[in-house]
Design brief:
Oligomer: single chain
Helix content: 25-40%
Largest sheet: 8 strands, mixed
Strand order of the largest sheet: 6-9-10-22-21-20-17-11
Shape: globular
């Protein structure tokens, strides 16, 4: 039988499972890890032993001792064991080139079972094939897979690279509170009741926004923090109730200083972690250009498929849907899809379904072919009958040719036309393999800055103006005179960093003048008295020589997700929540006992059953 483990006398690991090479042949070593695979061939047993450093093949030879053979016979996958043995080179015809340790194996002279493993809910493999709920319920097993181990290691390397670069640039890492005052920042707060002050609550920070601005008032000049943040909002693939951002703030800077700093940071991270060289400067697009050209303020620029204005050919066409949209001050936008004239009616209807999700009334289309005695270009199908006499104008104007498909969205609201057709563009990038082709060509990471955002957006449901990003962003100076009279035209000194169709970071130059800050509060309906209650600790600080300052906050979860080629941040977080903001592993959120509630002066109101 195997040895009975005495923790105080357990074997001491002398090498890891990814360490040994041919040069180590002849050494006696001890490995500790988990049984990854076990194969029995006659009187010989092969045990692949795994730890986070790699896998080593160990062997129980035919002439091994009875105790070793008995212990080996008991082993199953994921038993935690220690083995001692002699490192030996594999014969040339037995070398495994797919394993870093593939030139050697360990002939076992001793096995200690450190812990047994019950029947597994799923097999620990390179990538788990279990459903998400099962993976999260047994996350400690899922994290043993090589895929998760590599992604968590990448996250570690990225976080280390952040600290390394920021330190080299003279930034201080300063922690800010996680029990803060509840302030309106765009999402619902997670609230923490105070036992000492009944009826009062702390909030978990949605971001360290106000505190990092106070650090600038405090004279610290360059601050960063890898900060935990909390927002009570619906979960999705790239969103969690708790998340991590690289929070950054700087004094005496303008927008270009922050953009250049962030480009340097990203360049360092990608070079250090992936060996990828990024451009010294990223593409810059205004918000208006991004919306008009790509239908999104976070466009995926790995593929070049641009939306165009179709309005020059609408007047006089007789197609009322298009003409009515223009008459109402809207837009008619077109997308030329190269070599897609073979698209079936069913495929086009699927694309129309995508457009309708974003409030489009429909998706018009035409195909370009050649016909007639002179084989001239002709339009056919869809709405082509309204434009038959303007074929050459349309093709020349849009840069379209034989075999192309023209997709068109018209709407009385320009934003609806742009966003709906932009969603179709994104779908086509996947369906046509444009993203895959771009990545094969080496365009894996397409960064872009989106600048000159609107300062405010109008909430039609509630009938008031809201800050597009947050209330502390600086309105560009040319709009100061019309701040209150025309909020909709005001551009903020705002900027987003976009990567592969995801918003990776958001930032702005901040307001440091208390009077200008109150004017912005006024636009969104926050008077002086309310502002004093909610933000007085910040606005009062501005009265004591606050410097001009600005900042940005890249999302660490999304960054690592994109670096790893994943589409969900759950794949790069050790213990994420599921899509219902629950943890299947530990069962939170969960009820607490009545004594705890009484100490906090809380009473739970049960929902009445319907």
């Amino acid at each position: 039988m195997e040895k009975i483990l005495d923790t105080a006398k357990s074997p001491r690991r002398t090498a890891t499972c990814g360490q040994l090479r041919k040069a180590d042949a002849g050494k006696t070593i001890t490995l500790c890890g988990w049984v990854h695979r076990k194969r029995d061939h006659g009187g010989v047993s092969f045990i692949n032993l795994r730890d986070r450093y790699g896998i080593t093949q160990t062997v129980v030879d035919d002439d091994a001792g009875d105790a070793v053979k008995a212990a080996a016979a008991e082993l199953h996958n994921e038993f935690c064991i220690a083995v001692t043995g002699l490192v030996r080179a594999r014969p040339d015809n037995m070398v495994n080139p797919d394993m870093p340790t593939g030139e050697i194996e360990v002939s076992i002279t001793d096995i200690t079972i450190l812990n047994r493993c019950e029947v597994l809910p799923f097999q620990v493999e390179d990538e788990s094939k279990a459903n998400e709920d099962l993976r999260l319920r047994y996350r400690y097993l899922d994290l043993r897979s090589s895929g998760m181990q590599q992604r968590i290691a990448l996250r570690h390397e990225a976080a280390f690279a952040v600290r390394e670069w920021m330190h080299g640039q003279g930034f201080y890492e300063i922690e800010t509170p996680t029990f803060v005052k509840s302030t309106p920042e765009g999402a619902r707060d997670y609230l923490v009741p105070s036992r000492l002050y009944p009826g009062s609550f702390y909030a978990l920070p949605q971001s360290p926004q106000l505190y990092k601005q106070l650090l600038m008032v405090s004279g610290f000049d360059k601050y960063f923090q890898i900060a935990r943040c909390y927002r009570d909002e619906d979960a999705r693939g790239d969103r969690q109730p708790e998340f991590t951002q690289v929070d950054i703030e700087m004094s005496f800077v303008q927008r270009d200083d922050i953009l250049a700093m962030t480009e340097g940071l990203m360049g360092h991270i990608f070079k250090k972690c992936l060996g990828v060289d990024l451009p010294a400067q990223f593409v810059r697009l205004s918000y208006d250009d991004a919306m008009n050209t790509y239908g999104s303020d976070k466009p995926d620029l790995r593929f070049d498929l641009k939306m165009q204005d179709f309005s020059p050919w609408v007047t006089g066409s007789g197609f009322q849907a298009f003409e009515g949209a223009l008459d109402a001050g809207g837009a008619v936008k077109a997308l030329v899809v190269p070599r897609a004239a073979s698209y079936s009616r069913k495929q086009i209807e699927e694309l129309e379904g995508v457009a309708k999700i974003y409030k489009a009334k429909g998706l018009a289309w035409m195909k370009i072919s050649r016909g007639g005695a002179e084989a001239q270009r002709v339009l056919e199908g869809g709405v082509s009958k309204f434009f038959l006499n303007r074929v050459d104008e349309i093709c020349s104007g849009l840069g379209a040719d034989e075999g192309d498909l023209i997709l068109i969205v018209a709407d009385a609201k320009k934003k609806v036309a742009n966003v709906a057709l932009g969603a179709v563009r994104s779908r086509l990038g996947k369906d046509l393999g444009l993203i895959e082709a771009a990545e094969k060509a080496g365009n894996r990471f397409a960064f872009a800055w989106i600048v000159d955002f609107p300062m405010f957006s109008y909430n039609e449901d509630e009938g008031h103006w809201e800050a597009e990003h947050h209330l502390f962003s600086y309105p560009q100076e040319q709009y100061h005179a019309t701040l209150e009279s025309d909020p909709g035209s005001v551009k903020g000194d705002l900027y987003d960093l976009v990567l592969n169709g995801y918003e990776l970071a958001s930032g702005s130059i901040r307001i440091h003048d208390p009077e200008l800050q109150q004017r912005v509060f006024n636009v969104v309906g926050i008077g002086r008295e309310e502002a004093e209650v909610k933000f007085g600790f910040l606005t009062n600080a501005f009265k004591y020589g606050a410097p001009p300052h600005g900042g940005i906050a890249p999302g660490l979860d999304r960054l690592v997700m994109l670096m790893a080629g994943e589409t969900s941040i759950k794949e790069v977080i050790a213990f994420p929540k599921n899509s219902f903001a629950q943890s299947p592993m530990d069962g939170c959120p969960s009820e607490v006992d009545e004594k705890q509630l009484q100490e906090l002066h809380l009473h739970i109101i049960k929902e009445e059953s319907k």
